[in-house]
Amino acid sequence: MEEHVVERIRQRVLLEVFNLDPVATPAPSRAEWPLWTEQDKQHVKLRVLSLNAWGLPVAPKCTERAAEIASAISSDFELVVLQEIWHLRERNLVISKAQTNGFHYYHYFNPAVGFPFPMGADSFGTGLLVLSKFPISSALYHSFSLSGRPYALHESDFVANKGVGLLRVETPAGQIDVYVTHLLANYNVGGKPGPGDFYRGHRTGQSYDLTQFISATNRNNLTIVCGDFNSSPDCLELRVPKQLLSLRDAYTDTNDEDGLTFASPENKYSHGEHPMRMDYVMYKIDKRPKGESDWHLVESSIFKGFFTDARGEKTPLSDHFGVKAEFVFSEPRVHVCEQQEDYAVVSTDEVASPNGTERSCPTTTCAHCDETGMEQSDEDKATADAACLQEVQEMLFIGRNEAIAARHMRLWRAVAFFVAALAVFVTHMMSIVVSRWSWVAVLLFGMISVTEYVLTFFFLTFECSTFTELINQVQLHLHLHAHRIEGMVQAKAEK
């Protein structure tokens, strides 16, 4: 039987306050790079895992699961992208064990507020940890404009400083771009999408922010985007980067279903919540000249990790299952569709769609299918982008209106508690009501009033203005597409 959460909190606080059972600091990420031969560059395998590790310090078996995660990834992956490695203890444990298994390069994105508990200076971070068997040459972190609310400590989003991390990873086939992110959670009952999901506007803003950051920084032939989006595959939050950046979902490209990473019946930690796949490995491969070696997606599947705990029970590594994907860099391959005399010409959407009746080619990054899919006119692409941006703008307006309503409510509460404090003070001074508790009431009401005032003018005002800024950015984006579409229509008319 799992320990009660209060007992887990007590044990963890004592563990950190008195520095009991300390975990050694891991060695720095290796500085030297391997010397690759020309033969090494001919065929490169890159196996990627994205996993939300549920490293909340007071979660069941947190430290034990972290150690098991490090063991489970030892030989099956070259790149592991973890979310929710919140605390220094689990972070050091995972890194140290991973280093003994060949992950000599790593980066943890640190810039976070952290929980207000006495658990060590600089102990908390963003939760984003990347382990690699290939060298990491540079890193960059971009905080999202919208990142939760400071007074909602139980949600842990604001303290994590949600954002997106970029790593340049050096492989024998050249440098690749790896992005890792973790969007705001859905605190609806059971995590169900739809009405009651107060943070959907925030997640949409984060998704657009992510898309803009990738667009501004992406520069390599292979781009990989990993993370927990807290959204199902058909949600706007996923459609934004896929539509605007032409990213593809590795799992749906190789499977005829959406998959399930959260609230699976096989996972005792999340079973009973709303089932969905909220974890993703997305990618984009910029095509090289015909005949040259290139990256290809080989396969993708759900990573279901378990271990046997001290009591002999089969235990999940996390409340999430992960997503894994394998890419290879090799010479051009002969595709199934090109071996058929009468192969059908279809778009990439039809090839990748999990709802399609039949795939014309089971090879996901198929030269023929991708090239024919690109026959969609620039005008059609710009129109589809504009439609997506319109949806983003509408959702941001909804989020802004909700933030304004919350601001008004807290402002009135600040006024109400100030009036209450003033009324108690006046009645006490005029001896209308004399009580030794009067000053306590004045102090309490006054503190609540000041707190509500600070939240209103320092945080909710900033949230409202941030929504406005994102809306203005989207409008500029829409103006650009409108100009492009108009130019294409005129060019077509002149022909």
From TrEMBL:
Record has Ubl conjugation as a keyword: no
Residue stretches spanning the membrane: 411-433, 439-462
Gene Ontology molecular function, alphabetical: metal ion binding; sphingomyelin phosphodiesterase activity
Pathway: Lipid metabolism; sphingolipid metabolism; Sphingolipid metabolism
InterPro entries: Endo/exonuclease/phosphatase (IPR005135), Sph/SMPD2-like (IPR038772)
GO CC entries: membrane
Organism: Phytophthora aleatoria
Keywords: Hydrolase, Lipid metabolism, Magnesium, Membrane, Metal-binding, Sphingolipid metabolism, Transmembrane, Transmembrane helix
Major location category of this protein: membrane
GO-annotated biological processes: sphingolipid metabolic process
Protein name: Endonuclease/exonuclease/phosphatase domain-containing protein
Family, per entry: Belongs to the neutral sphingomyelinase family.
All residue ranges annotated as the Endonuclease/exonuclease/phosphatase domain in the record: 49-320
Protein location: Membrane
One family name in Pfam for this protein: Exo_endo_phos
